[in-house]
Amino acid sequence: MFLRLTRPLLFLFLVIFPLFSCTHEQTGTLKVGTNVWPGYEPLYLARSSGFLDLGRIKMVEFNSASEVLSAFRNHSVDVAALTLDETISLIADRPDTRIILGTDFSAGGDVVVAQTDIKSIQQLKGKKVGVESTALGAYVLSRVLELNHLTTHDIQIVFMEVNQHTNAFIQHEVDAVVTFDPVKTQLVKHGGNIIFSSQQIPGEIIDVLVTREDVINKKHPQLKMLVNGWFESLDLITQKRADALQKMAPRLSISVSELDSALGGLKLLDRADNQQLLSGKQATIISTANKTQQTMISNGLVAQPVFGIEHINSQFVDKK
Questions:
Q1: Confidence (pTM)
Q2: What's phi and psi for 264, nearest 5 deg?
Q3: TM segments (predicted)?
């Protein structure tokens, strides 16, 4: 009698438990890691504007891209906001990484800021240059030197996290830093000169959201909500710019006018931009990534090409 009752119960348990587990995963919290950068701010605007379910999506802010990468590698976050070169570096040892959204192109937001008496890149010879120990820092520095016919032997490289840039610059511990907003704005206030900007390398610095293949399978609804929330934020910025800037500026510790100027140094990518960037065999990010990979290989940042079309998942930008 016991066995006759137990077997149906056991069968029921085996059927229902996997369904329960699946439901639990689908409704679990999606953790999204970013550092401080105006190009990621629409994600936080989506949170404050009610476009994201706070029980299902948690934004996690880190001091630097290095910390974001570390958190993604050890699975502390499910999604990471990174530059394309950082993503390529990540794919080299995490091939299950997938790009699901392009957030922005840097068009002046990434810079080299020098002390008041330094007016050109050539004047950095023999000087101390602070740079974050990430693929982005190394990539921008390599392009700066390459375009000005210099090498790393011509300068003294000082590795430091981006949250150390302002203090090191003010204390004259470095002669220049490779940095980005909002630090750029703070350093200019202290007399810094912008002697190089990403306007000089158009289209080369792209920010993206990446996740893992298993997260796409387990937390698909949350990823869809996150991407749709991004596009809703861009609509809000377009339709009610003053209100949106007022919401975003305090988090970056800069004024509304400074944020407005900072956003002028990048292009936020809407759904149409993303479809062109990520969709199909003609996705424009492929050619950009190939060029970026070659520059990274030439400068010893990766050993060989690692990025391919398989590292793109455009389903979240292709439709709502």
A1: 0.84
A2: -70, -15
A3: none
